[in-house]
Design brief:
The complex is a heterodimer of chains A (about 300) and B (about 375). Chain A has about 300 residues and is of the alpha/beta class. Chain A has 12 helices and 9 strands. Chain B has about 375 residues and is an alpha/beta fold. Chain B has one domain (about 15-160, about 240-370): P-loop containing nucleotide triphosphate hydrolases (Rossmann fold, 3-Layer(aba) Sandwich), CATH 3.40.50.300. Chain B is elongated and about 80 Å long. The chains are: A alpha/beta (about 300), B alpha/beta (about 375).
C-alpha cells in the first residue's frame, strides 16, 4: 500500500484550499510537518492581512520575512506590495527601475488598484520559491491557500493576464508561471472539506470547476472533522442524566456524516465518469479542539489517523 | 428597551444600518439574513444586501444573483417587508458604469474595453466597493427602516473599510491626470510623443508592461474617470453614514482559534477607525444541553471508557469554546466603552437551505444566551 499523502509529498509546491473555517490552516501545517518528518525542508506560505500560522506556534507575526519555526520548517506571510517588489526586481530583473519608479507614492497607489496584480505576483513568488531559489532552501512549499472561491480566481489569473492584451516581460513571466502551476509533477492542490451536507455540495462543485476551468492539478481531498462512528452502547444506570443527550448527539452526527460521505463519493464518481479523473479522499478525525501553541505530536497523530474513504 | 424582545431583536429595533463582518465559515451570511428576517417580523421595511453570497441562500429566498433589489415573497406572514439583493460582481459593476458614465456612448466603450472586461468579471476586488455604492443608493432612495449589509469574509472586510481611501489616494495623488494627459497628447501626435509627454516614469512602466497594455489601460482610465470620481464620492458619503448613531457593526464569529483571532483583529480595526460595534454573534456553539454533558463527563467520564470516543470530543470542544469566548469578551470590554453583548448561538443540527430552516435559525438566534 502506498504511504498516505504520497501524492502530495513528492511535489515542489502544495496548495491547500477549502471553504473558510474548516481547518484549512491546521491541515496545511500538519501536512508541512508530515513532510518535515520525512526529512524534507519545508516552507509554509500564507498571504493574509494578519498572520495565521505564526500565532499557532505561539510566536509573534513574522510578516514578509522568512522565519524558521523549527529545524526544517519555516514560515512566511507574503504581502502584495512586497510580492510586487520582489517580482519586479527578482523576476523581471528591474532593480533600478523599481527604486526609481515603483517606490513613488503615486505609483504605489496605482498598483494597489490594479486588479490581478496581487494574485499574479503571489503566484510568481511561489514559482520562485519552488523553482528558482538559487540557495535551494526548500524541498516543499506548502501554501495555506485562499478560501475556495478566491483560490479559483487565483488559479485563473495567469490565463486572464495572458488574454488581457499585455505584452513584454510580464507576459513571458506569466507564461512561465502558468506552465509551472499546471505541471502535475511539481504542483499539487489539496482540497479540505468537512462531512456536512452543504459543504460537501460546495466541495463537489469546486472540484468540478477547478478541474474544468483552471490548469491547477487537484491531487487529493481531505475530509476534516469526521466524528467517530457510533456503535450501539447500552445505557447504564450509573450514567448522569445528561449523558442521554450526549449519546443522541454522537449518534446523530455519526449517521448524518456517513450519509454525507456517501454523497461525496457518489458526486466524485460522477465527475470521474464525466472527466475520467479521480482523487484519493482522506477522512481526518474530529479532535474537538487543538491546544495552542500547537503540540507537534498532537498534530501528527491527527493526520496519521487519516483513513482513505 | 421593549419588553419581550430577545437581545438580538432589541438591537435590530434601534438600528438603521447594520454591517456584518467576520471571517469565513462562521455563518455570517446566514446570520445577516436571519437579522433581516427578524427585522421584517418586527414590522420594519428591511433591505438586505449580500456580497458574494452562497447560492443556496440566494435560492432559499428565491432571489437571483445580480444587482437588483428584489422583493422577497415569504411564505410566513410578517408585519414588515423584506427586499434583498444578492450581488453579482459584473452586474453591479455594469450598473455603476451606466450610472456614472457621462454618456451612453462612453458606457458602451467602457463595456468594450478589454481591461474592463477582465476587471468586471474575472479578477476579484471591486465588489465591496460596489456594495458601498449600492448601500448609498439604498440609504438615499430606498425608504428602508433597516438595512443589513453582509460583507465578504475575512481580510476582505478590512479592504471593505479601507477601499474608499485607496481610491481617494488614487485620485488625489494625481495618478489619473498623470497617466491620462500623455495619452490625450499622444492621440493627436502618435506614440512617439507619448514617452516625451509621460517622461521617465512612463517609459519605465511601459518597459515592464508593454505599450499595448498601457494604451488599453489609459483608454480604460480616460473612459472611467467620471465613474471613478463617482465611486469616490459615494465611498466618502457612505463612510460618513456608517459613523452615524443608528449605524453599527455586528461581528460574527465561531469558537475556533483562528476565527476568534480574526474577530479580535476586526474589533481592533473597528476601534481604530472609530466604527461602533453593536454586538458579537458567536455561532456554532455546542447545543446548550451538551454543556451539562461536558461538565458531567469531566467529573465521571473515566468510569465509562466505552463513551470516550464520542464524549471526549464533546468535552474538549466545550472546554475550548468557553476559553475562547471568555477571551473574546474580555477583548471587547477592553476596546469598547459601551457594553457589547456577546450572543452565544447554538449550532444548527441541519442545513439551512429554505425559508423554513432560515426561520428556525432566527429562532435559534433569538434564544442566544448573552454571555456575561
Amino acid at each position: 500500500m502506498q504511504e498516505h499523502f504520497s501524492e502530495l509529498m513528492q511535489k515542489k509546491l502544495l496548495m491547500v484550499t477549502g471553504k473558510g473555517g474548516i481547518g484549512k490552516t491546521l491541515t496545511s501545517v500538519a501536512l508541512a510537518q508530515w513532510a518535515r518528518r520525512q526529512g524534507k525542508k519545508v516552507c509554509l506560505v500564507e498571504s493574509s492581512a494578519h498572520d495565521q500560522i505564526a500565532p499557532l506556534f505561539g510566536i509573534a507575526p513574522v510578516g514578509h520575512q522568512l522565519r524558521e519555526l523549527m529545524p526544517g520548517l519555516s514560515v512566511i506571510n507574503l504581502n502584495p506590495m512586497d510580492n510586487f517588489r520582489d517580482f519586479v526586481i527578482k523576476h523581471l530583473g528591474f532593480a533600478k527601475l523599481f527604486e526609481k519608479v515603483f517606490t513613488k507614492p503615486i505609483v504605489r497607489s496605482f498598483i494597489q488598484t490594479m486588479p490581478g496584480i496581487a494574485e499574479l505576483t503571489l503566484l510568481g513568488r511561489l514559482y520562485y520559491f519552488s523553482e528558482l531559489d538559487r540557495d535551494d532552501r526548500f524541498d516543499l512549499i506548502v501554501l495555506d491557500g485562499f478560501a475556495s472561491g478566491h483560490f479559483h480566481s487565483l488559479m485563473k489569473t495567469p490565463d486572464a493576464v495572458l488574454q488581457s492584451g499585455m505584452v513584454g516581460p510580464i507576459i513571458d513571466e506569466t507564461q512561465r508561471v502558468r506552465s509551472f502551476i499546471a505541471d502535475s509533477s511539481k504542483v499539487a492542490v489539496a482540497l479540505v472539506t468537512v462531512p456536512e451536507d452543504l459543504v460537501v455540495g460546495e466541495a463537489l462543485d469546486f472540484v468540478a470547476r477547478l478541474h474544468r476551468e483552471t490548469p491547477a492539478p487537484l491531487a487529493s481531498i481531505l475530509v476534516n472533522r469526521c466524528y467517530p462512528i457510533y456503535r450501539h452502547v447500552a445505557p447504564s444506570a450509573q450514567w448522569p442524566e445528561s449523558f442521554a443527550s450526549g449519546l443522541r448527539y454522537w449518534q446523530h452526527r455519526s449517521e448524518s456524516e456517513v450519509q454525507n460521505l456517501k454523497r461525496l463519493q457518489t458526486g466524485l464518481s460522477e465527475i470521474h465518469r464525466h472527466d475520467g479523473q479521480s482523487w484519493p479522499v482522506y477522512c481526518l478525525p474530529e479532535r474537538g479542539a487543538f491546544v495552542e501553541p500547537l503540540v507537534q505530536t498532537e498534530l501528527h497523530e491527527w493526520v496519521a489517523a487519516a483513513e482513505l474513504l | 428597551m421593549n419588553a419581550g424582545l430577545s437581545p438580538i431583536e432589541a438591537i435590530l429595533e434601534r438600528s438603521r444600518v447594520i454591517v456584518t463582518i467576520g471571517s469565513g465559515g462562521v455563518g455570517k451570511t446566514t446570520s445577516s439574513i436571519a437579522m433581516a428576517l427578524l427585522g421584517a417580523r418586527l414590522g420594519k421595511r428591511v433591505g438586505l444586501l449580500s456580497i458574494d453570497p452562497a447560492k443556496r441562500l440566494a435560492d432559499a429566498l428565491g432571489i437571483p444573483l445580480g444587482s437588483e433589489l428584489v422583493k422577497v415573497r415569504l411564505a410566513q406572514e410578517i408585519k414588515g417587508s423584506l427586499e434583498a439583493a444578492m450581488l453579482d460582481q459584473k452586474a453591479v459593476f455594469d450598473e455603476m458604469v451606466l450610472r456614472f458614465a457621462p454618456s451612453k456612448g462612453v458606457a458602451e466603450r467602457i463595456f468594450q474595453n478589454s481591461i474592463y472586461k477582465e476587471v468586471s468579471s474575472n479578477l476579484g476586488g471591486p465588489l465591496e466597493y460596489m456594495a458601498l455604492a449600492k448601500l448609498e443608493n439604498m440609504l438615499t432612495q430606498g425608504g428602508y427602516d433597516l438595512i443589513v449589509l453582509d460583507t465578504p469574509p475575512d481580510t476582505h472586510a478590512l479592504d471593505f473599510l479601507s477601499r474608499p481611501n485607496i481610491l481617494a489616494g488614487f485620485i488625489e495623488n494625481g495618478v489619473m491626470s498623470w497617466l491620462i494627459k500623455p495619452f490625450h497628447v499622444a492621440q493627436k501626435l502618435g506614440a512617439g510623443a507619448l514617452f516625451k509627454a509621460g517622461g521617465k516614469l512612463m517609459s519605465g512602466i511601459s518597459s515592464v508592461t508593454g505599450v499595448k497594455m498601457l494604451r488599453l489601460l489609459a483608454e480604460f482610465l480616460v473612459l472611467m474617470e467620471d465613474v471613478i470620481i463617482g465611486f469616490n464620492r459615494v465611498g466618502r458619503e457612505v463612510a460618513f453614514t456608517l459613523k452615524k448613531d443608528s449605524t453599527g457593526f455586528v461581528l460574527v464569529s465561531a469558537p475556533y482559534n483562528n476565527a476568534i483571532r480574526s474577530a479580535a483583529h476586526l474589533m481592533r480595526e473597528l476601534k481604530t477607525q472609530n466604527y461602533p460595534l453593536f454586538s458579537i454573534i458567536l455561532n456554532r456553539n455546542m447545543p446548550f444541553d451538551l454543556q451539562q454533558t461536558a461538565l458531567d463527563w469531566q467529573k465521571v467520564g473515566g468510569d465509562f471508557p466505552e463513551l470516550e470516543p464520542g464524549f471526549g470530543i464533546i468535552s474538549r470542544r466545550q472546554h475550548y469554546a468557553a476559553t475562547l469566548s471568555d477571551a473574546l469578551l474580555t477583548e471587547a470590554r477592553r476596546l469598547f466603552v459601551q457594553n457589547v453583548p456577546l450572543l452565544m448561538v447554538e449550532e444548527q443540527g441541519q442545513m439551512i437551505h429554505s425559508e423554513d430552516t432560515l426561520w428556525q435559525f432566527t429562532d435559534t438566534l433569538c434564544r442566544a444566551r448573552v454571555k456575561t
